[in-house]
Amino acid sequence: MWEDFKKHVIHYLTLFIILGLGLLGFWHFSYQMTLQRVIILAVAVLYVGWGVVHHLLEGNLNLKIVIEYTSVAALAAALVWMMIGASS
């Protein structure tokens, strides 16, 4: 795994930036549920896009991978969406 990380450090740094900025934005707009939901959706879409681009560049992109990234993003977004809805 470490070798994979070193080989694709720019890819993983990009993912870290996407998730980190999403987390910062979510925290910064803690008073505004609508903006938090926009951030949730944006991070989910960017995560799927990152996964597609990463695997496209690796030459191993297929439908199963797209479905996997989409499913993880949808599950995470739904969980966070429900948690902020329950707290209001």
Account of the 3D structure:
With 88 residues, the protein is an all-alpha fold. It has one domain. The protein contains four helices and no strands. Helix 2 runs antiparallel to helix 3 (33-58) and helix 3 (33-58) packs antiparallel against helix 4 (63-87). The protein starts with a helix and ends with a helix.
Report the principal-axis shape. globular
**Which structural category do the helix and sheet elements fall into?**
mainly alpha
Number of strands: 0
What count of helical segments does DSSP give? 4
Sheet-strand content, in percent, reads: under 5%
Q: Can you lay out the helices and strands and say which pair or pack?
A:
Elements: H1 2-7, H2 9-28, H3 33-58, H4 63-87
Helix pairs in contact: 2-3, 3-4
Summed up:
This protein is mainly α and 88 residues long.
Features:
88 residues, mainly alpha, 4 helices
